[in-house]
């Protein structure tokens, strides 16, 4: 739809205005940019309506069932964002004029916001955790479940629990391809997993990811914070992570190492259970003992994070 003769001149005009703003930084041009964006939006809506009318006219009593079924499936699936925006505004108020500059602005923003700082205590904790991991996998005193090689049964189970229709990572190897590997192909893949498991190292390419910015609902497309980054990793890496997760979950559950108060990221539990448990504690205190004083603290951080504290 972006290649429509009605829309192409408007898009070209918007690019020209963005370039002029970048050169002269004239505030009067910003009103022109807003007007052209509004006109593009109106034209886009008009084209969508016309396309829908044409589609409705093409359907009659003689339309094949296969065509109707494909149409129903396409309407039921959430469509990706069709809005093309290359006018990201940086911290200095400068507007990007092409997709490459917009991508660089988004990358710089994500790099700045996701950068973590570690103090001396954090590094000590990291070293301690590293020693624990190596201790679990040592040949003398290690835990067997963390030393044994992965089996074909574990690989097939992980394949059945992963969605092969997910988007591929940087290697462009789709999950459908791996799920349809022959026995020989699965055996070769399992050898790669076991080699990585034995050496304790991850292949370099598996550490890479494609970052796809998804615009948040009701957010302006001109600001980097309006986009949520989605990381697409290689399916092979996700498959090995699934196998390790199953082993780790089995070990934690079989040895009762998870707290009974752990609800998030726990199979068969959810954070809603924690809220119900918390509410039941309040009701029980009122019913069983009227002398217990319940103090509830609401601490709000940023916009959506709320922590609860209870003192008896």
From TrEMBL:
Task: Give this protein's Gene Ontology molecular function annotations.
Answer: RNA-directed DNA polymerase activity
UniProt superkingdom:
Eukaryota
Which keywords describe this protein according to UniProt? Nucleotidyltransferase, RNA-directed DNA polymerase, Transferase
Keyword Nucleotidyltransferase tagged? yes
Name-wise, this protein is Putative RNA-directed DNA polymerase from transposon BS
Q: In which organism is this protein found?
A: Trichonephila clavipes (Golden silk orbweaver)
């Amino acid at each position: 739809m972006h290649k429509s003769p009605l829309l192409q001149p408007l898009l070209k005009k918007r690019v020209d205005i963005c370039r002029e703003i970048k050169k002269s930084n004239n505030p009067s041009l910003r009103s022109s940019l807003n007007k052209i964006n509004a006109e593009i939006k109106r034209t886009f809506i008009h084209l969508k309506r016309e396309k829908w009318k044409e589609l409705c006219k093409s359907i009659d009593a003689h339309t094949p069932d296969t065509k109707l079924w494909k149409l129903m499936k396409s309407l039921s699936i959430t469509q990706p964002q069709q809005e093309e925006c290359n006018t990201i505004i940086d911290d200095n108020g400068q507007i990007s004029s092409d997709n490459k500059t917009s991508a660089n602005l988004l990358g710089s923003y994500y790099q700045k916001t996701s950068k973590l700082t570690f103090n001396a205590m954090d590094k000590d904790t990291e070293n301690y955790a590293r020693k624990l991991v190596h201790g679990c996998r040592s040949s003398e005193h290690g835990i067997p479940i963390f030393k044994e090689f992965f089996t074909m049964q574990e690989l097939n189970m992980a394949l059945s629990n992963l969605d092969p229709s997910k988007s591929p990572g940087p290697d462009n190897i789709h999950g459908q391809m791996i799920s349809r590997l022959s026995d020989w192909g699965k055996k070769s893949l399992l050898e790669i997993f076991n080699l990585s498991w034995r050496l304790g190292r991850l292949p370099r390419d598996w550490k890479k990811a494609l970052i796809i910015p998804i615009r948040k609902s009701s957010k302006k497309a001109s600001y980097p914070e309006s986009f949520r980054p989605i990381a697409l990793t290689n399916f092979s890496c996700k498959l090995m992570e699934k196998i390790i997760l199953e082993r780790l979950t089995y070990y934690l559950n079989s040895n009762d190492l998870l707290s009974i108060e752990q609800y998030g990221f726990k199979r068969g539990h959810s954070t809603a259970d924690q809220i119900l448990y918390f509410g039941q504690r309040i009701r029980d205190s009122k019913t069983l003992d009227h002398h217990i004083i319940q103090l509830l603290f609401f601490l709000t951080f940023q916009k959506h994070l709320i922590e609860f504290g209870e003192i008896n």
